[in-house]
Amino acid sequence: MKDRKFDLQEGLIDYAVQILKMSEKLPNTKTDNHIWSQILMSGTSPTPNYGESQSAESKPDFIHKLKVALKGLRETEVWLKIDELISILVISIQTAKIWLFIIPCSILDIQNFQDSKIVSRSLINKKI
After folding, report:
1. HSE-up of 23 (CA within 13 Å, CB side)?
2. 118-121 contacts, C-beta under 8 A, 24 or more apart
3. Calpha distance 100→94 (Å, rounded)
4. What is the pTM of this model?
5. What does the pLDDT read at residue 125?
């Protein structure tokens, strides 16, 4: 089995490209624009910050640049969770609106069914 070497810089580049591609497919709402402008900044910054760390002038400078990259990744994770929760909330509201329409219709169907049973019984009793 061949040993695969993990290249962090390549992984971060792929991550940034995925963030950029996802942002292009979003609806154009104020909420999405705000959240994704934050995700674009925090999600693409770790890559160049990591690249900078590779030319750090000292060990503390190297550690600092890596910490900045890590902060960007963590911030992106939070923004993505917020975006996911908003999506769930929007879907829940849409579902609730559908149910608010379906339930009255179902009640009307039940009422119509009961009314038709009453009419049927009346017709049977009158033997029409």
Report:
1. 21
2. none
3. 10
4. 0.65
5. 63
